[in-house]
Amino acid sequence: MTSYANAAAYAGSPPRIERCPVSELDPFSDEALTNPWGVYAELQRLGSAVWLNKYEMFALTRYDSVLLGSQGCKCVHVVLWRHDE
Hints:
The protein has 85 residues and is of the alpha+beta class. It is 27% helix and 19% strand.
């Protein structure tokens, strides 16, 4: 289930985020790791930053969001994907 919600209601979310897309999708499930394109497409459809309830973290779905989100960080773990159909 995917919805929009007040991110401050979720543990671990930054308090300055008032509204963001929230998703129950699991990009680390066996299904998603085997064939990730459907999950990636849905997360990208929701927005450039999507709150993943299961992991209490944001998924940054667009290159510019990753760059912006990594400014000032000493270490950023990034997963890049490319899908050519």
